[in-house]
Amino acid sequence: MNAQQLSLRLVLLFSLILALTAGSAKSASPSSPAAAIAVIRQDCSSHPGPEPCYTSLAAWEADFGGINFGTAPPGDLVAADLIAIARIEGAWTLPDTAPLDLSGWTTDAAHYIRIYTAPEARHSGTPGSGYRLQTSGNGPLYSTVAYFRLEGLEISGDTSEHLIYLSPNTPEGVGEIHFSHNLIHGNGVNTASGLMSYSLGGTLFAWNNVIYAVGEPGYTAGIQTGGGTAYLYNNTIAGITSGFAIRSGGVVVAKNNLTDAPGTDFYGSFYPGSDFNASSDDSAPGFHSRREQAYTFTNPAGGDYHLSAADAGARNYGLDLSHAAQMPIFDDLDGATRLGGWDIGADEAE
């Protein structure tokens, strides 16, 4: 091979490398939105930063998370290419008593709001053990946000309103809301529904939640949906004052839910595939579901709905959902990994 041939081959090789590099650059996925993180603490005086700090979720929301939206409209996470995160952290000895009204935000599937508790602020599955959003008169949480995630909060209210009221008013297929590992309870007298998904046209995912002391005569329920699609997995809905445990509207897939209500536990139509539930009456949908069951909890009078190791109604009767196509889950209310035979409900008994 002479020098001219070698030079030609080197030119061709270099051209090929450039072409491959350009092709790789064109096919590369766009960068993920940045996370705009703020912290919620009972006392911000010792917070070192650099994140903005608030002493209530309501204050965080009113300030749009302290986010600099630049030329984008305030609250427009899509235009700003951001995810808004409220991280609740530190020790909490007092409740957060200001109702949270999530409104005025623009979100989509990639640009959403996430509110969650850090380990030291998370409840232990019993009331008063961590951060708690606790209101009197008004319901604790009202939201018109279409893309929203809430994890690990205690939410309670001495109120006749719904504790969590979702009203994003989205068309069919628009919106995605996640609720998991929450402890939700009312006043045990006249609180309406625990979780009301009123006008979400998209999808609600709710798993590993405990809901109790809610319900009033008529239409209310522990979880109530008005449309869209809902995947309800491994929730414990018990100690209901009046009404239903789960009242379905739209497409509802229910798996591994433990229910005990004065009215019908599972009211309405449930989509094929709903199974491995347990009810105190004969309404649990699914071939493998358990009906007419009684449960043994640790201390229901004290709001502790952990499943007792002596339980014979729900323990070891659930379905392993770690490979569920729509919503795989791996842990329980307390974050403990589910192993062996899965329990029905939010808690995996020790």
Describe the structure.
It is a single chain. The chain is mainly beta and 350 residues long. The chain has a domain at 167-175 and 191-350. Helices cover 10% and strands 27% of the residues. The chain contains three helices and 24 strands. It has helices at residues 3-27, 57-62, 77-80; strands spanning 34-40, 53-54, 82-88, 100-102, 113-117, 132-136, 141-143, 147-151, 154-158, 164-166, 176-180, 183-185, 195-197, 203-207, 210-212, 221-225, 229-233, 236-237, 244-247, 251-255, 258-259, 266-267, 297-299, 304-307. A nine-stranded parallel beta sheet has the order 2-1-3-5-8-11-14-17-20. Strands 4-7-10-13-16-19-22 form a seven-stranded parallel beta sheet. Strands 6-9-12-15-18-21 form a six-stranded parallel beta sheet, with no helix packed on it. Strand 23 and strand 24 form a beta hairpin. The longest helix has 25 residues, at 3-27. The protein starts with a helix and ends in a 43-residue tail after the last strand.
List the main descriptive attributes of the protein structure presented here:
350 residues; mainly beta; 3 helices; globular; disordered N terminus
Question: How would the global form be characterised?
Answer: globular
Q: What is the beta-strand fraction? A: 25-35%
Helix percentage range: 10-25%
Helix and strand sequence: HEEHHEEEEEEEEEEEEEEEEEEEEEE
Unreliable sequence segments: 1-29
Give the total of beta strands: 24
Instruction: Tell me about the largest β-sheet.
Output: 9 strands, parallel
Distance between the termini: 75 Å
Rounded to an integer, what's the Rg over CA atoms? 24 Å
The count of helical stretches stands at: 3
